[in-house]
Design goal:
By secondary structure, the protein is mostly helical. Helices cover 52% and strands 1% of the residues.
Length: 396
C-alpha cells in the first residue's frame, strides 16, 4: 500500500476512489429498488412485475419475496441520516415509497395484498421482512401508522400455522418471533427462537461453517441466511436468557471467520466460485461480509476499505453487466447477466432481490473508514505477488 505523500495526493486519490465506489453503490441501490417500490407503492406490483421461473406456483409467492428481500438489504440505509443533498432526497423519496408499499402489502383490501397464509414459502420471506424491520426500526416500524403495524403483525402471525423444514428454515421461524418480541408483542414464542439457535449449534461443522440441516452443503447459505439471522436474533433477544446471551460471542466469532473465507473467495477480477444452489441470488452470497462491515465487526484481518473494494468488484461483475435487467428494469435470473438455467424451480423474479443485502454498508456515513482509503483485497494482493499473512482455521 502506498504511503501518503506530503502534498496529500495519495490520500485524495484514495478518498476519491471511495466516493466513486459509493456513487456506484447508490446507483445500484436505486436501480434495484425503484421498480419494486414504485409498483407496490401504487398497488400495482402484481400488474407490473414479470414472473420468470421454471416453477409452476411462484405467482403465489414472488411478490412477497421481492419486497421482503429488497428491504432486508436497503433497510439500514433507509434508517440512516447522512449523505449529500442528492442522497438525502433519494432516501426521503424511498422512505415515502416504502411506507406506501407496506400499507398495500398488508392491507387485505389492496390488489397487492401479500400471501402469508398459503404454502410454505411465505415463512421464508416474512422472515426476511422481519429482519428488515430489525435493521431499520424507525423507518419500517416506529414511523408506520398503527393500522399498518397491526396489519403487519397479523400477517406475520399467519405463518405460524405451518412448520418450517428441518434445516436453515428453523431460523425463519425464529426471526419472526424475534421481530414480534422487538415490536412489543406479548405472545412472542421463545421456543421457536431457542430451537433455531440450539439446533444450529448441533449443525456446526467447524472453522466458522454450519451445515444446512444434518448435512454440510457447499453453497452460500451460511451467508444467504444462517449466520446473518443468528447474529440478528441473538443480538436482539439474547438478554432474555443467559444461555442465549453467552452464545453471542461464539456466534460472532464464527461469523468473523466465515467472513474471512468469503473475502478470500473474491478473485482479483471480482469473480467468486459459483458453488451450490441459489447462485442466482448473486451478491447475496456476501451478505454476512457486508453485515459485519456495516456493524463495525469485521475481523482484525480485514480492513474496511479492502472489503469495500472487494464487494464493489463483485457488484460490478454481478449487477453491472448486460442483460442483468429486462427492458423495464426488473432483475432477470442469472449470476452475471441473464442465465435462466441457473434458476432452480423455487427461484423467481422476486427471490432474486436477495442480492440487495450486499448494500448493507451504505448505512455507513461517507466519512466512515469504509468509504475512505484504498486497500487491495486478499486475492488481489496475493496474486499480484505481494507478501501476505497466511490463513488459519478457527479452533475449536
Amino acid at each position: 500500500m502506498e504511503h501518503t505523500k506530503l502534498d496529500g495526493s495519495v490520500t485524495m486519490q484514495a478518498n476519491n476512489e471511495g466516493a466513486q465506489d459509493r456513487e456506484f453503490w447508490l446507483k445500484s441501490l436505486e436501480r434495484l429498488s425503484r421498480p419494486v417500490l414504485e409498483a407496490l407503492a401504487e398497488d400495482r406490483l402484481r400488474e407490473r412485475m414479470p414472473i420468470e421461473s421454471s416453477g409452476s406456483d411462484r405467482a403465489l409467492y414472488t411478490h412477497l419475496e421481492a419486497i421482503g428481500r429488497l428491504l432486508c438489504g436497503i433497510a439500514p440505509w433507509l434508517d440512516a441520516n447522512h449523505g449529500d443533498s442528492q442522497e438525502q432526497a433519494l432516501r426521503a423519496e424511498f422512505r415515502e415509497l416504502t411506507t406506501k408499499a407496506l400499507e398495500h402489502a398488508f392491507d387485505p383490501t389492496a390488489k397487492d395484498y401479500m400471501n402469508l397464509a398459503k404454502g410454505y414459502q411465505p415463512i421464508v420471506d416474512a422472515a426476511f421482512l422481519c429482519q428488515a424491520i430489525l435493521r431499520a426500526p424507525n423507518t419500517l416500524w416506529h414511523e408506520q401508522r398503527e393500522q399498518v403495524k397491526t396489519n403487519i403483525i397479523h400477517g406475520i402471525k399467519q405463518t405460524r400455522t405451518r412448520k418450517p423444514y428441518f434445516n436453515n428454515w428453523l431460523l425463519f421461524s425464529g426471526m419472526m418471533e424475534t421481530m414480534l418480541y422487538h415490536c412489543g408483542e406479548s405472545d412472542w414464542d421463545p421456543m421457536r427462537i431457542d430451537y433455531g439457535i440450539k439446533q444450529h449449534e448441533q449443525w456446526y461443522v467447524g472453522d466458522g461453517v454450519y451445515g444446512d440441516g444434518i448435512h454440510y452443503h457447499a453453497d452460500y447459505y451460511n451467508s444467504f441466511v444462517i449466520q446473518p439471522m443468528l447474529l440478528d436474533m441473538v443480538e436482539t433477544v439474547g438478554q432474555e436468557y443467559p444461555d442465549w446471551s453467552k452464545r453471542y460471542e461464539v456466534i460472532k466469532g464464527r461469523a468473523q471467520r466465515y467472513a474471512e473465507q468469503l473475502e478470500r473467495m473474491i478473485s482479483p477480477e471480482g469473480t467468486f466460485p459459483p458453488l451450490g444452489r441459489s447462485i442466482a441470488y448473486r451478491t447475496g452470497a456476501f451478505q454476512l461480509l457486508a453485515q459485519l462491515a456495516w456493524k463495525g465487526q469485521l475481523p482484525e484481518s480485514l480492513q474496511p476499505a479492502q472489503v469495500r473494494g472487494a464487494l464493489t468488484a463483485v457488484m460490478k461483475r454481478c449487477l453491472d453487466v448486460p442483460n442483468t435487467y429486462d427492458e423495464q428494469g426488473w432483475l432477470r435470473i442469472g449470476l452475471s447477466g441473464h442465465q435462466p438455467s441457473l434458476g432452480e424451480e423455487y427461484i423467481s423474479t422476486g427471490s432474486l432481490y436477495l442480492c440487495s443485502t450486499v448494500l448493507l454498508p451504505l448505512a455507513l456515513s461517507p466519512e466512515d473508514s469504509y468509504w475512505n482509503g484504498t486497500e487491495p483485497w486478499t486475492s488481489k494482493r496475493l496474486w499480484s505477488g505481494t507478501d501476505s499473512a497466511a490463513d488459519h482455521a478457527l479452533y475449536p
